[in-house]
Amino acid sequence: MKNFKIAVVGAGPAGYFTTQAFQNAQNSEVSFSIDMIERLPTPWGLVRSGVAPDHPKIKTVSKVFEKIAKEANFRLFANVEIGKDVSIKELREQYDAVVLAIGASKGRKLGIPGESLKNSMSASDFVPWYNAHPDYENTEIDLSCDTAVVIGAGNVAIDIARILAMDPTELDSTDIAQHALIELKRSNIRTVIICGRRGPEHAAFTSLELKNLTKLQNTNVVIDELQVNSAYGRYSNFFETEKDLKNNLESMKFIAEHSKKGVDRKLEIKFLLSPLEIRGNKTVSEVVFSINKVSDKKVIATDQTFSIQTGLIISAIGYETVAIPGIEIDNGRISNIAGHVEHNVYTTGWAKRGPTGVIGTNKSDSKDVVDLIIKNLKTPKNSEGITTLLRSTHEVINQTSWEKINAEEIISGQILNKPRLKISNRLKLIQIGRNNT
Ligand code: NAP
Asked: Measuring CA to CA, which residue among 160, 164, 168, 259 is closest to residue 209?
């Protein structure tokens, strides 16, 4: 029986699905010992710090992760940072294969003047702030203006706009960070405008997320009926083959035709607006767009501009993988061929393919990479793994420590009728984990 040591770096969906694929591939001839290494003191990646708090169903995948973690061949090493506590080179030497499932946590830049003004930020700052990510505990966001603008026409833009535009009491029973809930309750924002640079037919929203907007109790959702109908007209002949497009445009038509009355909160979706410049004195006060039009199904710029007076601008235009020492990044992802990076190093998930797809997409993606790794594995190394690499004083959050943190959050949440009360302070998380060991 051959036993191979695998290091999975990153405890998000791609990391767990990679582990699961290794577990499923075991047989009478081959087994795998998997060490999962995570920078934060908590696992689950985007399921914890990306998925919106009012989407609890999506988070139930964490039950699958915990089942994977219960297997005897799995060990969690959270609160361990690559490049600081251990290097890729060291992992490469100690393990038969290293899989980088490190996601893409840096927001892409708009690259326009004024982007660095105060209260102009990326989704990659705003989303982890409301999801209690320890690195964003002290992020400063001023919600005192009446209008916020979200740039980008994808599901992350919808998440952000919804959180800002909804009545915050609708978030009371969620696991949103307590600091964010307090700020949202103080917020003066009553209008949130999502601005996409192309037409309704090009939007990256999914119809489910569009439909969910109509369920907001106290927010009027508005979309330009004329623009939606034009897109509908341009594409209705293709609906037989383009099911996603058909569903999206139908969801938009539904939104356009059903506006709510008597509520003061508004979420508006605008199209054909390319951001040109953010204006303001120290803090943002206006965003200027160039108006585009669709001609022969192509999006072209006009010479007209449109501007919105706003005190908060959030760009949700995609993500890039953050570089780790010794690993080459190309076009926002780890340079790889079908998941192979170099020697015995591989990658999966958003770090491999870019920031696309839903959580489940990582399952098939990771299975493909694991199949490739298994094909390339020859003779197991005689090595100790990560335990020989870490300083003896290093505070690892292992699975038992994490279960203590998890239980503490769930118990604190119960009193408040929430699924959990997330702890966003890194030291506190470590301290709770430490008490268990
Ligand atoms: P996305 O789906 O790729 O959308 C990015 C949007 O940004 C696109 O509309 C894109 O427009 C626009 N954009 C890019 N560069 C721009 C620029 N310079 N100026 C203006 N607009 C620009 O990315 P995402 O919203 O970050 O989502 C990432 C992935 O996570 C997606 O697969 C998404 O479905 C998934 N997700 C799913 C859920 C859910 O299922 N509930 C929730 C959140 C995220 P163009 O098309 O013109 O480039």
From this structure: 160
